[in-house]
Amino acid sequence: MEELRKQYSLAGLDESAVNPDPFTQFTHWFKEAQREITDSWFEVNAMALATADKHGTVSNRIVLLKGVDEIGFRFFTNYESEKAQQIEANPNASLLFFWPQMERQIRISGTVHKTSFELSKKYFESRPVKSRISAVASPQSKPVANRGELEDAVAQVEESIGGLQLDESKLHCPDYWGGYHVAPKEFEFWQGRENRLHDRLQYYLNDPSVDENGWAIRRLGP
Ligand SMILES: Cc1cc2nc3c(=O)[nH]c(=O)nc-3n(C[C@H](O)[C@H](O)[C@H](O)COP(=O)(O)O)c2cc1C
Q1: N or C: which end of the chain has fewer CB within 10 A?
Q2: pTM of this prediction?
C-alpha cells in the first residue's frame, strides 16, 4: 500500500471565496457535489457518523443525511440502536462527508438531539412501504439468530397490517424509530491540493455565549 499515491489538483479553497456562514458554505458544496458527481452508485448524502459512549469508546457508521436546517444536520435511525445508546450517554458526535470525485472532505462536530415526533412521523410516512416495514421489524444492532428470524419479523409486521392486502394506514411510526439533529459547533472544509499541501478552513464559534451565530474562520495546517 505504501506505493499508493494520488495527486489532488482539482481546485483550491481560499478564505476570500468561502461564505461566512458555514451552513451556506455546506449547501454550496453539497449542491456542487450533486451536480458534478455523476456516478449513479455514489450517494452524496452518505456521511460517517462517529459517536462515543460515556467511557470514550468510539463507534462509527454511515447514515444518510435527510435534511439541514438552522437546528442542524438530520438523519433517521432506530432509537434503540447502538448509536442511539451512545448518543443517550454522550451527546457529542462527529459527521464526515468524503467526496473523492471532488477531492473534498467536510467534517462537522457538535451535539445530537432527537427531532420532534411529528418530524419523524412525517419522514417515516414518506418512505416506501417496504422500508417502513423493515424499520418496524428490525431490532437494529441487536444479535439475531439468522436471516430467517429477520424475515419472520417482517412477515409478522406484514400480517399485522393485513397480509397480502397491506393496509398502509395501519403502519405507524414506532416510538423506537425517528430522527436526530447534529447541531454543529465546528465545521472543517478540506480541499485536496498538490503535493499534500491541502487547504483546510475551519469554522468555529467565536463566543457562543455572546453570539450564537458568530462563526469565525481559520486556516489549519494540512
Ligand atoms: C450507504 C449506507 C447508508 C445507511 N443509512 C443509514 C441510515 O440513514 N440510518 C441508519 O440507521 N442506518 C443506516 N445505515 C446502516 C448503518 O451504517 C449501521 O449499520 C446501522 O445504523 C447500525 O448502527 P449502530 O449499530 O452503530 O447503531 C446505512 C449504511 C450504509 C452503508
Answers
A1: N
A2: 0.95
